[in-house]
Amino acid sequence: MYTAVETKLFETVLIDSNISSQLNDSNATVNFALKKPAVLSTTLNYIFKWTAEKAVDGNSDGSNPDTSRTCSATYPTTPIKNHTWEVDIGFQIIVKTITVYGRTDKSFDHLRGFKLYIGNVSRPWLYNQEIPSNSSSDTLYVFKPKDAIASVISLKKEGTIIVICEVTVEGECLGGNFSEYCNLTCGTCYAYQTCNQENGTCPFGCDQGWKGTFCKEGCERGLYGYNCHETCGHCLYGNNSCSTSDGNCTKGCIAGWQGYQCKTGCDTGEYGYNCNETCGNCLYGNAYCETSYGHCKNGCMAGWQGENCKTECAAGTYGFTCNETCGYCLNGNDVCLHNNGHCYGGCQAGWKGDTCKSGCDTGEYGYNCNETCGNCLYRNAYCETSYGHCNNGCMAGWKSDNCKTECDAGTYGFTCNETCGYCLNGNNSCLRMNGHCNDGCQAGWKGETCNEAYVKLPEGGIEISILGGSVGGAIAVIVLSLIIVIITFKIRRRQKIPASDIARGSDDRNVYENSTSVGLKCVVDSVNVDGDSAKGNGTTSSPRDEKLTEELHSDNPETYYNLLNSLPRGMVSLSDLWDYVQEKCLDDKYFAEEFEALPSGPQLPTDAALLPENRKKNRYKDLYAYDINRVHLKPLGNDESDYINASFVDGYSVHRMYIASQGTTKQNINDFWRMLWQYDVEKIVMLTGLFEGGKHKCELYWPEGEGQTSTFGCVAVTLVDTDLFADYVIRTLEMSVNNESKRLTQFHYTAWPDKGVPRATSSVVLFWNRVNREPTNKPIVVHCSAGIGRTGAYIALDILVSQGRVEGNVNVSACVSSIRRQRVNMVQTKEQYIFLHETLVEALMLSGTATTSDKFPNVIQELLEIDGEIGKPKLQLEYERLRHEDVNHETVYASISSDNDLDEAESQQDEFAAAKKPENIAKNRYDNILPADRHRVFLNSFPGRNDYINAVVLPSHRRKQGFIMTQMPLTGTVIDFWRMIHDLEVNIIVMLNSESYKGHDIGVYWPKTDAARYGPFSVRLAKQEEGRNYIQRTLSFSVIGLQQEQFVTQFQFSNWPKHVEAPESTAFLEILDIIGSWQKDEKPIIVHCLNGAERSGLYCVISTVIERLKREKDVAILQTIKRMRAIRHQIIPNYEQYRFCHECIIEYMKTFETYSN
Known about the structure:
It comes from Sinanodonta woodiana. Belongs to the protein-tyrosine phosphatase family. By secondary structure, this protein is an alpha+beta fold. Among the domains are: 4-185, Jelly Rolls; 206-265, no CATH class; 570-845, Alpha-Beta Complex (Protein-Tyrosine Phosphatase, Chain A), CATH 3.90.190.10; 908-1092, Protein-Tyrosine Phosphatase, Chain A. It is built from 24 helices and 62 strands. Helix 7 runs parallel beside helix 17, helix 12 packs across helix 15 and helix 22 packs parallel to helix 24. The longest helix is centred in the C-terminal third of the chain and has 27 residues, at 874-900. The chain is elongated and about 180 Å long.
């Protein structure tokens, strides 16, 4: 066996002679030494001549050279001499391999120790190599001189003789030539390799664009590539125009093809020449886009039209084939989303739902304003903002500049200048507001204030009252004379009163039961609210009406109190109010019977409304303004132009505080603005939509776009600003006449449903709270459609809250009766009447009424005190009330619905209809946590799946769709979860559960590494980071077949152990703050936990409360909870979470001191 010898210049390999034939078979090289001239320094002449050319004769057999005569040898010399053998190829070649063959028949030392030289004729030698004298071989040597360029090969040896049987010099021709003389040119071989040096063939075929035996023939048109085996692609101008080398279509591709060879069809979502066009919005995705011209085979996605589905629906239309008309969007009927018709800015007044096609269902003062105004007359609107002085004096029962000091014991009334009467418990025990003696009078005295002495005559049992107190001396004679006169007057009066009047209770004590409220003086053409006149309206009053008018025209504000307390008995102290309402809610008939006992129908003349020229100004038949307190407009040239269907209504201790009006119509819209201008109105409370239940409820009376101006008669109205909230809109309007301008604010409540009342009282209370933050001493215009139902409920709430705060008790039935005598049928339905009670409880009794941030720490401190009687914190008692109230609310409204509206009752029973369908039952983790149809998320259509997912839409403070609250997906609903993300264009997901729960089906919806497929969605984990209390994942997803990639960021809160009701507050606030900083748009946030209620609800509540705190500087925890529980009842399911809400907000305010000042 031979060994290899390595050198710097050559690689010498000693090999066995049996592989020499393989070397000769190489297609890559030629033996250029063959038959070339060779010389020897001397020639052996033994048996035959061992001449030099025998070593290049092509015969390398050295087994018996004496007989074969194929070897070359020098003449032996003694002493030792240098022997040389040399061959001249005749031209330069690239030398690859030199092989030297010795004789193999004897072990003569005929080659060992020779030197190999490579060079050119001109010398010097380029390379040389010496075979060591101790080499074990004497038969075969292979040299690889590393591509030397040479023409002469020489072997030299110092010794007695040199014997060489064959020398082969293999290499390649220079310049791409071949043949033994390198005089023929190679073709274009594969990868530009050298052709076979003997015959010119290409050992691996032809390079691109060539064919034939010698690769010298170019490809025919239409063919290309190696050996022209490839066919040209779909080149523009025909398949013959591609490059024959690589198939490149130099002019581009025909429609539907791409790539430089035009052999690749357009990617999904592309079409056209060179696939440079992007497919339109095809139905079922761009996979159904035809690649030549982009036609959508199955039509367009909703919102698009045209063969290519690249044309958006025309303004005002949407849906498949754009055949749907936009609803009543807030910013105009032509600005809805083209795909689903959603009104991204909300709805115009009167409309609701995503598409706005469903009609709506039937003060501070002092430094930093840290002080709260006192009990000013006309509310805090008259509180001077520097020092809190009440400009118009105090409400009854209060005194001092700030009206914060109660009347001294024994005094009462306005300015505390009235002295208490003879109350049973002493003259100092009367109510400081109105002097009433709640516990009765001392003997000999009567009346509400116990200031009326009386004498009971034996004959006929007639009582004679003497006002003022004790009588003596000469005064007694006068009094006695008066008694006789009074007796005579009463006897005669009894003889003259008709039976019908007696039946109606028409005596002096009950005069106000058939009256409006107080002080409705009317003077034509006057803009003074207290100086209006009812003259000239064509009314003919009876003597009784004249007496009534005289009472009503009294300027004494105390008249109101006498009225309120002489009406039907129903006074409830605040301490009993919650129990009272809850108890009566459980009684199917109590509130219904009380409501039916209220005055119903017209109570006073409405002659002006019935004049022929005014009838068309009334929206509804029989709902007219009473003559006695109707709003008078300045006549426009004739007396009949002073009418508008609007009525003054008295507030608590405030004369004509409200104007209750019907919604605007085409006939009265100009008059409506005349009224606002004439009475300097600064606040409008709108409680209806423009359309409800498919019916026109109110005419649009303001410009639709900010900065736009509309003219109504002589009043130019400009929309200055619009502020959108989840349940209401605040618009700042400017009205101008000639060169004078006035500003007013419209508070538009948009969450009153088509039927019934709002499901959550909290929504209305928060709205009412917001309205009252804007002080005014002008009449507040309140309107719905007719101006009686919702309008009455709102005004009654406002009055009763004031009454409760001042008196410590309320009388709902008396209040409603009172305002019904000022406008027909105020608080129109039983549902509204019950809702008024519930809303009143929330506004007066629960801490959830928005508390200013500076007062909240004191409020929570008080709520955490232990109730002495029950032994529980007051906060816990409040939560227990909340839980109990939920049950009663559902009970009473189910009862009302079943009595009045079969459809409504059925809708109550079927509110979870979709969730309970057989095909959807398996999609719910728990059968008691289901989405109501009115609140659930509807998914877009998808082959093989319906539109259901167990998820509900929750509002935040400013957005109707603030959160999507859902359960952690099941393995079978992960696809639906991604459909929801895609459909709603969600950017943020909040995950509040771990990834594994023993015994639960957990559908992990993201890949741990790389990518995964969920139905039609390809999802990959683009990035993952870990914070102290959370894991943040960036997930990329796309519809398979589409190149458009979208991203959603998931925040998994990791610091909430299992079986713990609430997390640690600082960690929770940290994740809230981080997510808040990420939220840059109006898209909803998906919030999920295991059951989609308990942990998710806590997050949504705290987030919303903080959002409101930042903007409004107040805290409304309970209202937020109630509002959200109306959508998903299981939110905040225990006291621990309820307490956590309060503690978390306190912690937040400590962290951000701005909100506690």
